[in-house]
Amino acid sequence: MSAAGRRAFRASIFHLLGDPGTEPGAAEFVADGLLVVRDGRVERCGGYAALAPALAPGTPIEDLRGKWIVPGFVDTHVHYAQTDVIASPGEQLLAWLEKYTFPEERRFGDPAYARAVAEFFLDELLRNGTTTAVVFPTVHKASAEALFAAAAARRMRLVAGKVLMDRNCPEFLRDTPEQGDEDSRELIERWHGRGRLAYAITPRFAATSSERQLELAGRLYDERPGLYVQSHVAENRDEVRWVAELFPSARSYLDVYDRFGLLRPRAVYAHCIHLDETDRRRMAQSGAAMSFCPTSNLFLGSGLFDRAEARRLGARVTLGTDVGGGTSFSMLRTLAEGYKVLQLRGQTLSSLDAFYLATLGAARALELDAHIGNLAPGKEADFAVIDPGATPLLERRFARAGDLVERLFVLMTLGDDRAVAATYVLGERAHPR
Ligand code: GUN
Ligand code: FE
Fold first, then answer.
1. Site to substitute for ligand 1 among 205, 292, 305, 328, most atoms within 8 A of C-beta
2. Ligand 1 centroid – CA 428 distance (Å)
């Protein structure tokens, strides 16, 4: 790094300055671009020819010509403790939780085990170009500690919180409303707002929390408005029926969360498949975000997310890998599967829209767009370097793609971790391929 803490990267640059669906001119592509980073933030971003002459003498320039710089991806729903549950076949949600997930999550009571998996998990995110994630640990306080510590060491932006679950699950994974609340409060004191970390109150889903636990979760959220909430909703039909039995007076599954004050801006609900119009309207009004998790929804046979309705009613939509129900850490793969899910619905996903979901759209939904989401000056310099020549097929098909929209579509359809040549966090290389 230069004496002034400044460095520059020469490559093609693609990012979104707005929602391409509603804001014309949102997409910015610079074929021969220069990204100038100073003290971890973007100082300038534009054409090489225009910016290079003004660069302070002695500023190191990394030559990445032939590659594309894109903003780091934002994965809004993923379970780090399910890293080793990935590719567990034969069941839908509820049986899959019992058979594979709960036994594995039990192991995270051991801090050393949790630490080792957290480190692998975060490195895997970085290998895939993901620099910000909203993550589920397990019920164990130590599992959240391990994750926050590993993220802090990598200087990553991360939202997470100890899972709350006090019923309808194995004894070995249960907390109590009081213990869950106390552990959450201690973790908030220790980690929320420290560096780039934020805390999410994390009731696993309505089925595994008592009314008392949800009530305390809502109360905590009320007391500390800067926190996040994360949970699951309306993923699987059997799950929806079960929640209706458990909360007979609620209008819908989503309404359970609403009654406890858990539907607000900065709340992220994974799946949101089996909702009705009232629910979707309520999501939109509340400012809570939906996390569409296509690889998981296909793998667990959960159902098809309705993007068009979410959009029509104005709900915030983001994208999650949902590993280990999901089958890939790659947001490129996740976009490709999202496209296919929407095809089965008779809907489509343009490539610009797809990249918006994975970057600025998610940043806005999480109210982090002052910090991340694109490479505008002042933002944190989190980015992925994409190699369109990563595989013979990608290289060949990419070369034949006519315009930006087609190239991005080829990238998301054929790309995966192999296409991520490097990932930078706050302007420093965090994953060299
Ligand atoms: N609903 C409650 N817990 C889970 C989980 O771990 N994964 C998924 N996909 N859905 C859930
Ligand atoms: Fe999940």
1. 205
2. 34
